[in-house]
């Protein structure tokens, strides 16, 4: 075991540059094909420490209801032996129910931090397997970078994606993932996958990015259309729904444009959480 008393890991947000959603299967899940990228910028901070008993402290969702608790259960299964009790403390920056992967990212950071703290040395493959037991997006955050994900989002393939600057805008109220998918099922199906290659630079993302859940999210929260228009007017190309929402991501290749976009959105949407981020390319 490591002699360190605690390990802290950053839990970054993600954005789905392309999210293609198929018809609901008999098991209730929708098959996905999505290109996810992990962003540099604001991130939750997850600290794992030895403790007399297991605990998870997190604003809004603490204890066994938090995915970090399930992550410790999954790590114990993967390690093949009982683990000493650990305390997880999550300093939240990322909004909940926003589609940026905050809870999944926290769970992945918990897995990595606990593995380091206890000196398990499980490695990426074992950590990904533990992550898959926790939730569909959690394995992505073990790998980070850019990944094509299929199945429910847990089957990963490393990808290339261009560098870009971006602004995340999260309204005060989030969206339920289950609610968005239910609204998706009630709408006409999206067009088929055009299999267009990933653009080589940020200027091509405006025409290439796509999120099949956008019409459903807009039905449930019509005010998102106003945020989308404001981002576009400020220079976003594209303005894109993050996952199942409710956050939007405005993308550009120009850092100055992104800085201006962030300032504009803080004025245009004073109740929203506005975060400046970037993707370094992969």
Task: Give a verbal description of the structure.
The protein is an alpha+beta fold and 282 residues long. The strands form three sheets. A five-stranded mixed β-sheet has the order 8-7-3-2-10. The radius of gyration is 19 Å and the shape is globular. The protein folds into two domains: 153 residues, Ribosomal Protein S5, domain 2; 116 residues, 2-Layer Sandwich (Alpha-Beta Plaits). Helix content is 33%, strand content 25%. A hairpin with a 6-residue loop joins strand 11 and strand 12.
Keywords:
single chain; 282 residues; Ribosomal Protein S5, domain 2; Alpha-Beta Plaits; four-stranded mixed sheet; 9 helices
**Share of helix among residues?**
25-40%
As laid out across the biggest beta sheet, the strand order is 8-7-3-2-10
The number of domains is: 2
> Largest sheet at a glance?
5 strands, mixed
Condensed summary:
By secondary structure, the protein is an alpha+beta fold. The protein has helices at residues 67-79, 102-118, 123-134, 138-143, 177-186, 205-208, 214-220, 224-233, 255-268, and strands at 6-11, 14-21, 32-38, 44-50, 55-57, 86-91, 146-151, 155-158, 164-170, 210-211, 239-241, 248-252, 273-279.
Topology diagram in text:
Elements (H helix, E strand, L loop, with lengths): L5 E6 L2 E8 L10 E7 L5 E7 L4 E3 L9 H13 L6 E6 L10 H17 L4 H12 L3 H6 L2 E6 L3 E4 L5 E7 L6 H10 L18 H4 L1 E2 L2 H7 L3 H10 L5 E3 L6 E5 L2 H14 L4 E7 L3
Parallel strand pairs: 2-10, 5-6
Antiparallel strand pairs: 1-4, 2-3, 3-7, 4-6, 7-8, 9-12, 9-13, 11-12
Helix pairs in contact: 1-2, 1-3, 2-3, 5-7
